[in-house]
Amino acid sequence: MSVALQKPDVGAIAPNFSLPDVYGKRWTWSQFRGKRVLLYMWASW
Amino acid sequence: MLSVAMDGGGFEQPRAFVEQYGVTFPTLVDASGLLFRLYGFSAVPNGVYVDESGVIRFMLFTGFSVDRKEVVAQLETLLATPPGAAPPAPSVVQQSFELEVWLEQAAAHGDDPDIQLGLAEAYLQEGNYERAADAFARALELDDGSANAAFGLGTALNELGRSTEALGAWGQALRIEPDNFVIRKQIWRVKYPEKFYPAIDYDWQKVQLAAEKAAESRT
Lengths: 45, 219
Known about the structure:
The structure holds two protein chains of two kinds.
Chain A: E1 18-20, E2 26-28, E3 37-42
Antiparallel strand pairs in A: 1-2
Chain B: E1 2-5, H1 12-21, E2 27-29, H2 34-39, E3 46-50, E4 56-60, H3 69-80, H4 99-108, H5 113-126, H6 129-142, H7 147-159, H8 163-176, H9 181-191, H10 202-218
């Protein structure tokens, strides 16, 4: 079985992921299901 | 609103931003570049708007800013759409990201580089940097063209205080993906900390980028 991923585009389901927040608390993308979300990706540098 | 800092250098720097600006939404830290594997971008800032059924309705990579009027206008149009008016969501099986699931997968398919990478990312998120470094190294061994495996290996080694080896692994990631600005900046941050703290020297970054690109085109 391969879990190779296809890059999502507009119209596709946003991929699930799980990451810790800046205080170490774990969040999972699927927690936001049913809500409208703006996912913002940045860096401190 | 959900924010993700693509910071391979730990939690401290993004946390300082969050506290300085009094951010009220969750700010996650992606230390291994998981999102650039999932979404396929090579620089930030990026914005992805997802509706209530989990479908991507807007995506802008590099140059996403709420100071751009056309970006705000597009988002306002999407937000004005009544719930349920959008086309129905396609049905897909979402991948799990639990460590236990990756361990089972790895036991059954130890030679699959994607599974090793998933396992490595899960270890990294648990803060198990030794195991993460081993799994990233194994993923890289199975697929030496994986910038994610090399980048993640660098991140894990950096967390273990092995910064020279970390720079080597990040350098390998950059050779695989020379246009990935997230990787390049991570290297700079460790190699030239004085250009980042206490203040970020953006003019230096432009000069440095031009110099590195010129050197890379000669080799």
